[in-house]
Amino acid sequence: MLDCLTTWTLERIRSIRYIRVKAFPFPLYAYEDAISFTTYGFDNVLPMLPGLQLDRLVVEDCYHDGEGISDGWSDEGTYFAIQGLIESDGWKELHFISPSTRFMLPNDQNPRVRPPTCWNTLLQNRDGQDSGASVTMRISKAPKVPGVTENPDLCITYDKAPVVINDRDDTVDAYAKEVLVIANRGKNASYAQDGSTLAEEIRNLLRTTTWEEIKTSGLYVEAEEDPSAYL
């Protein structure tokens, strides 16, 4: 996405209304004289595109394969990818699609409020309790059916859906049900991306270096083969 949009003018970026993308993290040697990279989540991409004001941003989970298979790091990656996007600007409506429900479960290392309650509260705190801002989730009724969450009739809303089939069922199929997280900004919320939340080290890097130069100079580390390894 950055390969394309970082070459566009501000006016052209402002005109985009819909993007669908797979949300990979991007490791960078962003600090001067850095001897190791820092991994930035996909939400850090959006401040690199000031003026972005999408009607809808659709993001696909990069941490779980089509079978819903993952490790513990993948689940953490998905959870915080969603949270980072909900905290970001540049979209009016966000759809995040994952083939697995595992990221919804708290664990001993990272206890947390089960979604979407935590994200709904976060977004309402941003836009106002009476703004209409909301985060909802729906889950496929059947395992391993890609794209099924686009049809609400084939899904159940999360408050009516068990995360797993039963407590003893820890098979892949128990979790391999596609999940769609839908976030809507509140009425009159200012959602255009202004770039103000861009990490300062990335901002400094972009003052003297284009994205294409960052990639060709070795400052960018390719993470698409195994994104969980860079968390």
Report on the architecture of this protein.
There is one protein chain. The chain is of the alpha/beta class and 231 residues long. The protein has seven helices and eight strands; from the N terminus they run H-H-E-E-E-E-H-E-H-E-E-H-E-H-H. 24% of the residues lie in helices and 18% in strands. Strand 4, helix 3 and strand 5 form a beta-alpha-beta unit. The longest helix has 15 residues. The chain starts with a helix and ends in a 15-residue tail after the last helix. About 3% of the residues have low confidence.
Question: What topology does this entry show?
Answer:
Elements (H helix, E strand, L loop, with lengths): L1 H4 L4 H6 L2 E5 L3 E3 L9 E3 L13 E7 L11 H15 L4 E8 L18 H11 L6 E7 L14 E3 L14 H4 L3 E6 L15 H9 L2 H6 L15
Parallel strand pairs: 1-4, 4-5
Antiparallel strand pairs: 2-3, 5-8, 6-7, 6-8
- Overall structural class, as computed from helix and strand content, comes to alpha/beta
Let me know the largest β-sheet.
Answer: 6 strands, mixed
- Helix content range: 10-25%
- Overall 3D shape: globular
List keywords for this structure.
single chain; 231 residues; alpha/beta; two-stranded antiparallel sheet; globular
Brief overview:
By secondary structure, the chain is of the alpha/beta class. Helices cover 24% and strands 18% of the residues. The chain has a six-stranded mixed β-sheet.
